[in-house]
Amino acid sequence: MNIGIILAGGIGSRMGIVDKPKQFIDIYGKPIIVYTLETFDNHPEIDYIGVVCLDEWMDDLKILLRKYEINKVKWLIKGGMSRQESVYNAIIAISKDVNDDDILVIHDSVRPLVSHKIISNNISSAKQFGATDTVIPSTDTIIKSLDGLQIHEVPNRSELYIGQTPQSFKFELIKRAHETAIESNKLNSTDDCQLVLDLGEKVKLVMGDKLNFKITSFDDLLLLKAIIKLGKTEMV
Ligand SMILES: Nc1ccn([C@@H]2O[C@H](COP(=O)(O)OP(=O)(O)OP(=O)(O)O)[C@@H](O)[C@H]2O)c(=O)n1
Ligand SMILES: C[C@](O)(CO)[C@H](O)COP(=O)(O)O
Question: Where is this site: Transition state stabilizer (predicted)?
Answer without folding.
Answer: 14, 22
